[in-house]
Automatic annotation (TrEMBL):
Domain of life, source organism: Bacteria
InterPro entries: ATPase_NBD, FtsA/MreB, PilM
NCBIfam families assigned to the protein according to its UniProt record, in alphabetical order: pilM
Stated name of the protein: Pilus assembly protein PilM
Length: 360
């Protein structure tokens, strides 16, 4: 898995995963329970004010750092080293072929030389990282290397947020990679039984303002796309239906404190629209790639656990569908409220994937 980890040093215990999204900050702390089993020690979330993060860009560093400090205190964690994520749109990734057997310093020079061909910015304006994937498919004398680059200012914004909260950013990853790592760990048992090597799996992460779609075959990503649809549309529907402020509508939506007519008049049309968005995305995948099927569809993100969403998507797409619980198969620490976690877990996929960096 390619990450931006070497920008700040490699991951090493202890470490917590922190996901900064448009709607809030989520934190996950994992521990090794022994015999290959992980334990969820703590998790927590804190909402962000509107406009603090827009399209993955940090617009209000103070508001986000305050939220990060609150969520860290709320969680009860004592760990100050964090793994953070960059939105996929903010990171340029490219597979390149280089001669095998290069020394580390030679490899860095070659990577920088290759990077200048693919990055539309001056190299002194970007944070650059690379990961050796392995031997090239068609040449034993070459190797495949994954290159990753992000605008330095966007990386530094996230580092500054951690520092302002009294924490230290030791790993910077890519959110979509972290999500896929968490999904793979949580679903590998089920996928192995179903013959995952032959299956095509789609992950829909439905967030506040956008849905990120990843399609994988045999663990390799064959398609990625982001479309502007998310839970904020439901909040806006509530605002229009009941004359609430956006903040009140968001709070009452999360607290399940809405009028009796909400289910039929507001939620049901939103679910229909969500299912339509998913089916359109799948059709676009079929028409823009050589693939003609999806064998398994997974839902994640803060919006994924809405009552009825999974059933309507499974019915409209006619594809086996399931929610991803990134903590499946883990032990639960004494601070974890398991009943609450059942509905909230799909929203922690990225944070969990970031926390997994503690284990290499």
């Amino acid at each position: 898995m390619i990450s931006l980890g070497s920008l700040f040093g490699q991951s090493s215990p202890p470490l917590i995963g922190v996901d900064i999204s448009t709607s809030g900050v989520r934190l996950v702390e994992l521990a090794d329970a022994g015999k290959g089993v992980l334990r969820l020690e703590r998790y927590a979330a804190e909402p962000l004010p509107r406009g603090a993060v827009v399209d993955g860009n940090i617009e209000n560093i103070e508001a986000v750092s305050d939220a990060l400090l609150r969520v860290w205190k709320k969680s009860g964690s004592k760990i100050r080293q964090v793994a953070l994520g960059m939105p996929p749109a903010a990171v340029i990734t490219k597979k390149i072929i280089l001669p095998a057997g290069l020394q580390e310093d030679q490899l860095e020079v070659q990577v920088e030389s290759e990077a200048s061909q693919y990055i539309p910015f001056a190299l002194d304006e970007v944070s650059l990282d690379f990961d050796v994937i392995g031997p090239a498919a068609n040449s034993l004398d070459d190797m495949e290397v994954m290159l990753a680059a992000a605008r330095r200012e966007k990386v530094e914004d996230r580092v500054a947020i951690a520092e302002a909260a009294g924490l230290t950013a030791t790993v910077m990853d890519i959110e979509s990679y972290a999500a896929r790592a968490a999904m793979h760990r949580a679903t590998e048992g089920a996928d192995a039984k179903a013959g995952a090597g032959q299956r095509i799996v789609a992950l829909f992460q439905i967030g506040a303002q956008s849905t990120h779609i990843s399609v994988l075959q045999d663990g390799d990503t064959v398609y990625e796309r982001e479309q502007p649809f998310g839970g904020v549309q439901l909040t806006q529907d509530i605002v229009r239906a009941y004359g609430m402020s956006f903040e009140e509508a968001e709070a009452r939506k999360k607290a399940h404190d809405l009028p009796d007519s909400y289910g039929a008049e507001v939620l049901a049309p939103f679910l229909e629209n969500a299912a339509l968005e998913v089916t359109r995305a799948i059709q676009f995948f079929y028409t823009s790639t050589p693939y003609t099927r999806i064998d398994q569809l997974y839902l994640a993100g803060g919006c994924a656990a809405l009552p009825g969403l999974l059933d309507i998507i499974a019915g409209r797409t006619r594809i086996a569908s399931a929610l991803v619980s990134p903590f499946a198969g883990m032990q639960m620490g004494p601070a974890v409220r398991e009943q609450q976690l059942r509905t909230e877990a799909p929203g922690y996929l990225v944070a969990c994937g970031l926390a997994l960096r503690r284990f290499g």
